[in-house]
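Format notes (please read before filing issues)

Several people have asked whether sequences and structure tokens are stored in separate files. They are not. Every record keeps both together, in the order shown below: the sequence lines, then the token lines. Line labels are part of the format and must not be stripped during preprocessing.
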Amino acid sequence: MADIEFLRELCEPLGHVVFKKMFGGWAIMTQERMFGLVADDTLYFKVDAETAPRFEERGLGRFTYVTRDGRRTVMSYARAPEEVFDDTDAFVDWARAAIGAAMRSAATAKAPKRRTAKGRKGRDEPA
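Then the structure lines:
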């Protein structure tokens, strides 16, 4: 279970962390990047290709939801391990890894898309 006030205390060693209400849950953010998610009283941390194996090895599932049209969507957040609630150092370690994933994700999203010749129309071709 993820008590928001308790999570705020756990986040203190991380510096400035903001909690925002979001879709019946909470977004946990630092430097304007979301690194944590609380939904249905469960804490999830941001994952990427670098950190996902750590979660997968432990069987920590991804946050998923079902859209109105019945499609299941898997997000890039995985359930936090239980020990983060009992061990501040463990919380900080997992949270810093999630912050790293959030920062890398933001950097990738801002990187300019590389254009290739394939699929690009030339000047003489009609649009």
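For reference, the curators noted about this record: Residues 4-106 form a domain with the Yope Regulator; Chain: A, fold (CATH 3.30.1460.30). The beta strands are 18-22, 25-30, 33-39, 42-46, 62-66, 72-79.
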